[in-house]
Amino acid sequence: MHTVKNPSKLCQPQHLNFIILTLQLPEVDCYVARMSTTKVYSAIPLGFNGRLVAVEGDSSHGLPNFNIIGMPSQTISESRDRIRSAIRNSLFSFPRDKITINLAPAALRKTGTGLDLPIAITILILSSQLLPQDVSKRMFIGELSLN
Question: Taking the model in full, what pTM does it have?
């Protein structure tokens, strides 16, 4: 059996080698600060009256995704494609971020295509293509076509 009088010397390297790597990354657009949450107001018909709906939007970095939550009907869930096409065909750009749209109050069932416009405006504010002060104190209701 071989014994070592000073075991701490075994852990010390005799000589150090350093490797320096230089990575050249492709040029990327500068990060632009933009809003991460916003709120636009709309309304839906309910009986002979209407109900106020807040279209809240959140944008975050991540895999591109576009979700609508808050008890939307099938019609509103299908509006994602109409909204994406309408934004692109109106010479705006659809953001490549994770976008979540909440239709509040969540307990109220939302139907129809009248929330297309407020959802599109929320997305344009989140991506800094519209200013929040331009749409403050206003309510938006409207259906979008593909162009």
Answer: 0.74
